């Protein structure tokens, strides 16, 4: 019973934080409170696990992308996306005294957000193509969305010429091509992604790198994140995103 009271007290301030944030940005979406509370619960887990600063930054970054995809992309504002998320973290500091926010702020830069978001979307669409019921009868259309988004990502690769970003796209290309070659609805349908010569070239990196561990089943994990952290064997699949910080 004492443990249950502790768990309740740990998260007692989350709803108030979410309501304050909701009012600050005039958010009316009725799903925001639920997704915001899931996010803060996950931040609490990151804090309690006492992982390394890098691992905490990884988890906080991925949570940013998840919350952006679910809610923050609909917020009308004049700020950078990172700054909106920092506002939410600041509310956490004021009310719950988290330490991981400073780790996030010191490691994640605004200019990398769009690059990371495209990679996030790419793998998200790919997972939907493979596993989502909506794509069960429309495999080609779902795979085509991945194909088109990949072309956008490659354009970013050409512009930024970031070795880690481009190499991650090459890893995705191999995985995607292997998948469509095994799917009758996608095979021989002009979805094969050709090799980009520069994708695996090495370049001199002037900025340190951090690898972000991204779990493809993260949307389910947010519901049962404590179980996942302590029983990583249940994570079905992981992949790495490499970013500049």
Topology summary:
Elements: H1 2-10, H2 14-24, H3 32-49, H4 53-70, H5 81-96, H6 100-107, H7 113-131, H8 139-160, H9 163-182, E1 209-215, H10 218-221, H11 225-230, E2 238-244
Antiparallel strand pairs: 1-2
Could you please describe the fold and organization of this structure?
With 245 residues, the chain is mainly alpha-helical. The chain folds into two domains: 2-108; 109-203. It has eleven helices and two strands, in the order H-H-H-H-H-H-H-H-H-E-H-H-E. The protein has helices at residues 2-10, 14-24, 32-49, 53-70, 81-96, 100-107, 113-131, 139-160, 163-182, 218-221, 225-230; strands spanning 209-215, 238-244. Strands 1-2 form a two-stranded antiparallel ribbon. Helix 2 packs across helix 3 and helix 2 runs antiparallel to helix 5 (81-96). The radius of gyration is 19 Å and the shape is globular. The relative contact order is 0.11.
């Amino acid at each position: 019973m004492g443990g249950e009271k502790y768990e309740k007290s740990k998260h007692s301030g989350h709803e108030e934080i979410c309501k304050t944030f909701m009012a600050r940005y005039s958010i009316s979406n009725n799903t925001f409170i639920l997704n915001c509370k899931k996010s803060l619960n996950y931040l609490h887990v990151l804090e309690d696990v006492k992982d390394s600063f890098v691992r905490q930054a990884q988890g906080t970054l991925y949570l940013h992308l998840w919350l952006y995809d679910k809610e923050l992309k609909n917020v009308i504002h004049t700020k950078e996306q990172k700054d909106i998320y920092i506002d939410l973290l600041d509310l956490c500091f004021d009310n719950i005294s988290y330490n991981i926010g400073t780790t996030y702020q010191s490691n994640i830069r605004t200019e990398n957000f769009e690059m990371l978001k495209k990679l996030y979307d790419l793998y998200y669409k790919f997972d939907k193509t493979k596993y989502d019921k909506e794509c069960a009868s429309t495999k080609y259309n779902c795979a085509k969305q991945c194909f088109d988004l990949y072309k956008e990502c490659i354009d970013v690769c050409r512009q930024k010429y970031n070795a880690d970003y481009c190499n991650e796209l090459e890893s995705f290309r191999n995985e995607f091509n292997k998948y469509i070659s095994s799917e009758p609805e996608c095979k021989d349908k002009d979805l094969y992604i050709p090799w980009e010569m520069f994708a695996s070239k090495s370049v001199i990196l002037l900025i340190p790198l951090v690898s972000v561990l991204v779990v493809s089943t993260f949307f389910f994990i947010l519901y049962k994140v404590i179980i996942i952290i302590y029983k990583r064997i249940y994570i079905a699949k992981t992949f790495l995103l490499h970013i500049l910080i």
